[in-house]
Amino acid sequence: MKNLLLHIHDDDDLPTRLALAVDLARQMGSHIACVQVTPVESYATDPYGGLLGMAALIDTIHDQDKAVRLAAENRLQAAGASWDWHSFDGNVVEHLIDRSLLADMVILSQPAQTVRRTRRQPMAIVGDLVIHAPCPVLMVPQGCEALALNGPVMLAWNGSAEAAHAMRLGLPLLKRASTVHLVEVSDDEPGITAQEARAWLVRHGISVEVHEWPAKGRRISVALQHAAAELGVHYLVMGAYGHSRLRETVLGGVTKELIASANLPMLMVH
Fold first, then answer.
1. Rounded to whole angstroms, what are the CA distances from 212 to 23, 78, 220?
2. 157-193: b or e for each residue (b if 16 or more CB lie within 10 Å)?
3. Final residue of a structural domain among 88, 114, 140
4. Whether residue 123 has pLDDT greater than 90
5. Paired sense of beta strands 266-269 and 137-140, if any
6. H/E element holding 18?
7. Most CB atoms within 10 A, among 30, 61, 112, 154?
């Protein structure tokens, strides 16, 4: 994975995901594309009045964004990273999706789970990028500034097309792992079996251990987190939104619950 796309936004978790991007770039010899989007539409509250005030506000936001860029570039330069910078005005999700077309991974922070959101919190855009980006999305939890790619990894398996897609696109990272723990916790009808997935990984020279992890009355998302903790993995790879996004929004689902509650990095692919 030689092309990492990093979301730049002036929130409290920017230093964390910037440090993690630098750490991954160092391990993989990757280039970091920094994408900073000013969501000007969120400041346009009254189209018939206050235009001068809105223009002044946007100028102030641009000045703040320039300060964020200067600080980030200083950190990237000090780390000896390879990077470039892309600045836009407009819709954050749309611009990130556009720039992800030639990315190998998008790096975002886990959204804060609070009722009232503020500018200082990471944007809640992980689900949108997972659905629409053509590459894997790495969700970074708070405080995670490094990720040892040569440690154990967990691959959540349920036989679905999404799980197989995640395994295939995550292969460059899985090859670096000391062991891939292929964990199956699912009530779905079996598709591709865990043993078939194991055989595919083994053919790529990957050490794999298969685990049938009983739910024991727990939600699948909870069982997966317990498995990750017990196995001591460094991050989780999973197929996302096996059910429709609308169904998960209304009824809940594994992807939605893990985005909300996971305490380890997650590489997700739809």
1. 33, 45, 12
2. bbbbebbbebbebbbebbebbeebbbbbbbeeeeebe
3. 140
4. yes
5. antiparallel
6. helix 14-28
7. 154
Q: Which amino acid is at 65?
A: D
- How much of the chain, in percent, has pLDDT values that exceed 90? 78
Q: In the structure encoding, which two tokens stand for residue 129, read together?
A: 């990028």
Q: What is the largest CA-CA distance in the chain?
A: 64
* Selected residue with higher pLDDT from 246 and 53: 53
Q: How far apart are CA 139 and CA 108, in angstroms?
A: 5
Amino acid type, 228: A
pLDDT of the residue at 188: 60
Counted domains in the chain = 2
Is the four-CA dihedral 226, 227, 230, 232 of positive or negative sign? negative
**Residue 184 maps to a domain:** yes
